[in-house]
């Protein structure tokens, strides 16, 4: 069966889209900055396609990101050099090897780094990969190219097969132009086996129903019929964000009760902690009866509800969440809020295992605005996330890490330092927050 034109080029890359502009989404410049700040230094060259009128804006963002990345790399390199110099100055003859003189955290395997091009694990002090020479912490090569639909192969402002990542700062005017830009992607990935070829396209909401967007939708749908199931799922994720050819009838509300609702009403949580100024609360629930098992007289589940923001001034919250039952056997810290803060109400007894005979403490941590951290690209998150760039905001994640570490330390102290009796529960991205506290 003959493959339609353009399909072969489309199915060799990952296609993702980000909604930009307007009141609800970040601007093109902000989104481009977010992407470039998160590109691994060894991810391979990238090309940003922009119209002639917006080329200067894109170039300014790329230059700003480059300076920021190089400054951060210089600070990191200076820190490593300083650590080595300090170790050398105290390493006298007959003493332990230099590697043992270094700060244990700095010399551990957790500070070794994996090359994104060849996957080799390199030592902590290495500035470049010993196998392929990829520089550590450097800014990837990013070129801003003028996207002119009328340009022919002899007048291109970019070199075919020259990049690993393609960013459409300005959307292509047609499906044919979209395919033509795909020619910038490298024909093979021999030097970078773990990093996919990616096409990321910025789209404004007003462009989603336009001719160009719908031609790209049609192209992706056609390609879907010529790929394996995993690639179909990937394409479906992209289509879920930009395909408006079929309206969802479920979104056409006919009930007058919904006419006055807006987006803020849907996102707001109506629990007492969000609507009021409660810094923490505690409730008690009897254990479920179990045939053949006799519970102790004071066997209960002690449930603490604690807003994440209350941990910023934790001393004020501590009296409100202090244990009322002495000698609880373990603590369960529950993270996932299911987009609301009240899904557990009325079901608290089910947190305890059937064999429990003592008191169990359950701490329900209530995220700010039902989210543990910020998402620079919320539209991409809704389309299934990204396999090639970190869409999470590290500053807000570090803030949550710091606050949650306080809680873990507090609960460990209540258990007389027996931190092995603390269980962390959650799913989705919430558990990412606890990777460092859990290892502590």
TrEMBL record:
Keywords: Metal-binding, Zinc, Zinc-finger. The keyword Lyase does not apply. PROSITE patterns: ZF_RANBP2_1, ZF_RANBP2_2. InterPro entries: Znf_RanBP2. GO terms for molecular function: zinc ion binding. Residues 106-138 form the RanBP2-type domain. Coiled coil: none annotated. This is RanBP2-type domain-containing protein.
């Amino acid at each position: 069966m003959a493959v339609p034109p353009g399909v072969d080029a489309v199915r060799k890359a990952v296609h993702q889209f980000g909604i930009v502009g307007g009141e609800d989404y970040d601007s093109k410049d902000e989104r481009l900055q977010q992407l470039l700040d998160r590109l691994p230094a060894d991810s391979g060259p990238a090309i940003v396609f922009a119209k002639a009128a917006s080329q200067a804006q894109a170039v300014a963002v790329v230059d700003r990101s480059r300076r920021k990345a190089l400054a951060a790399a210089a600070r990191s390199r200076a820190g490593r050099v300083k650590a080595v110099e300090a170790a050398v100055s105290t390493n006298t003859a007959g003493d332990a090897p230099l590697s043992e003189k270094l700060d244990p955290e700095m010399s551990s395997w957790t500070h070794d780094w994996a090359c994104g091009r060849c996957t080799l694990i390199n030592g902590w002090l290495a500035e470049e990969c010993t196998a392929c020479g990829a520089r550590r912490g450097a800014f990837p090569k990013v070129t801003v190219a003028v996207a002119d639909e009328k340009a022919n192969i002899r007048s291109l402002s970019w070199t075919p097969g020259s990049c690993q990542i393609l960013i459409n700062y300005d959307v292509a005017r047609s499906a044919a132009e979209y395919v033509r830009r795909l020619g910038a992607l490298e024909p093979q990935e021999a030097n970078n086996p773990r990093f996919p070829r990616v096409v990321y396209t910025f789209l404004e909401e007003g462009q989603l129903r336009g001719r160009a967007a719908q031609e790209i939708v049609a192209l992706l749908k056609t390609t879907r019929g010529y790929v394996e199931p995993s690639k179909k799922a990937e394409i479906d994720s992209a289509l879920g964000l930009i395909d408006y050819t079929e309206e969802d009838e479920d979104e056409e509300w006919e009930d007058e009760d919904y006419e006055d609702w807006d987006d803020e009403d849907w996102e707001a949580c109506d629990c007492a902690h969000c609507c009021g100024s409660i810094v923490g609360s505690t409730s008690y629930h009897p254990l479920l009866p179990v045939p053949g098992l006799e519970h102790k007289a004071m066997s209960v589940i002690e449930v603490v509800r604690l807003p994440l923001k209350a941990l910023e001034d934790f001393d004020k919250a501590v009296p409100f969440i202090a244990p009322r039952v002495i000698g609880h056997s373990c603590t369960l810290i529950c993270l996932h809020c299911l987009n609301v803060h009240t899904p557990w109400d009325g079901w608290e007894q089910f947190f305890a295992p059937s064999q429990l005979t003592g008191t169990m403490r359950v701490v329900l941590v209530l995220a700010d605005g039902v989210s543990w951290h910020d998402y620079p690209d919320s539209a991409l998150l809704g389309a299934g996330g990204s396999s090639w760039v970190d869409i999470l905001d590290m500053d807000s994640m570090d803030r949550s890490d710091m606050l949650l570490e306080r809680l873990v330390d507090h609960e460990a102290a209540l258990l007389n330092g027996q931190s092995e009796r603390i269980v962390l529960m959650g799913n989705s991205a919430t558990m990412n927050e606890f990777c460092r506290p859990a290892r502590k």
